[in-house]
Amino acid sequence: MPFTGFPPEAITLLHDIIDHNDKVWFEAHKERYLRDILAPSKAFVEAMGEHLQILVPSIHATPKVNHSLFRIYRDARLHPTRPIKERIGVIFWQGGGHRMNSSSFYMHFDTHEVLVAAGIRAFKPPMMATYRDYIQHPTHREELHAILEALQVKGYTLPTARYKRIPRECNDDLPYPELTKLGGVFVATTFPIDAVFHSEALIDRLFKHYETLLPLQQWVYTMTLHPAEDA
Questions:
Q1: What are the tens digits of pLDDT across the range 71-105?
Q2: d(CA 219, CA 213)
Q3: What count of other Cβ atoms lies within 10 Å of the Cβ of residue 151?
Q4: Alpha-carbon dihedral angle through residues 57, 61, 66, 71, given to the nearest 10 degrees
Q5: How large is the average pLDDT for residues 34-52?
Q6: Residues contacting residue 222 through CB under 8 Å, at least 6 positions apart
Q7: Which are the contacts of 32, defined by CB distance < 8 A and separation ≥ 6?
Q8: Which of 43, 74, 75, 138 has a beta carbon 3.0–4.6 Å from 3's, enabling a disulfide?
């Protein structure tokens, strides 16, 4: 089906999930999820994927759950009292690794806003080692700093430090030591749910953001290609 925007009923359903967050209620209303959220999400992935291939020909844009789409159910072990997700995420990733540890373009929406982002939100230990090795190189470090500075000027939210101290394995006399304290490189912005969200114009709006975020996404992707021992 062509993407014509996310319907207002998608936001109504998310409000209802907040008020009735249990599996019994959700199963009784699952046809609403399939019609108002899952179907337009699949259409969105197909349409956005075609656009992103202009920027990154090897991008993964697969309109399936556990690929570009996320499960609607949370991990019951961590969320026993609220098992249904209250926001809807979509990811487009580059590379052969797991989608959540690959450089990506990302979008999620909830009842009041849309978040648009790129990069990797949280490094797993092997990728953390790769990142810390990679930014020891002055050129890589300068490139990342310049990209983040440029995006901040344009109004994007930059990653914040996860660690209080410079890691032991990092050289602390290089410029921009705060980069070593990051736990991920993920830059984002938000905008409210509006008429564009409910129309096909959402594709163009997001594509402009992804185009702006491309230097960051590509820096992170290049970093992932350098295992720590080779960085």
A1: 999 887 777 789 999 999 999 999 999 999 999 99
A2: 10
A3: 20
A4: 140
A5: 98
A6: none
A7: 9, 13
A8: 43
* Max CA distance (Å), the chain: 60
Task: Give the count of beta carbons closer than 10 Å to the beta carbon of residue 112.
Answer: 12
Adjacency order of strands within the sheet including 103-109: 88-94, 103-109, 113-120, 185-192
How many residues belong to the chain? 231
Query: How far is 54 from 72, CA to CA, in rounded Å?
Result: 30
Distances (CA, A) of 229 to 128, 139, 147, 152, 226: 12, 18, 25, 32, 8
Q: How much is the pTM?
A: 0.94
| CATH value of 8-230 in 3.30.1450, 3.30.930, 3.40.50, 2.40.50 | 3.30.930
Give the angle subtended at the CA of 209 by the CAs of 208 and 215, to the nearest 5°: 105
Residue pair 108/186 in contact (Cβ under 8 Å)? The answer is no
Record the tokens describing residue 177, joined without a space. Answer: 């030591």
If we measure between CA atoms, which residue out of 105, 123, 150, 87 comes closest to residue 223? 123
Q: Kindly state the helix (H) or strand (E) to which residue 48 belongs, with its residue range.
A: helix 39-55
Tokens 């709006």 belong to residue: 205
Token representation of residue 14: 């998310």
106, pLDDT greater than 80: yes
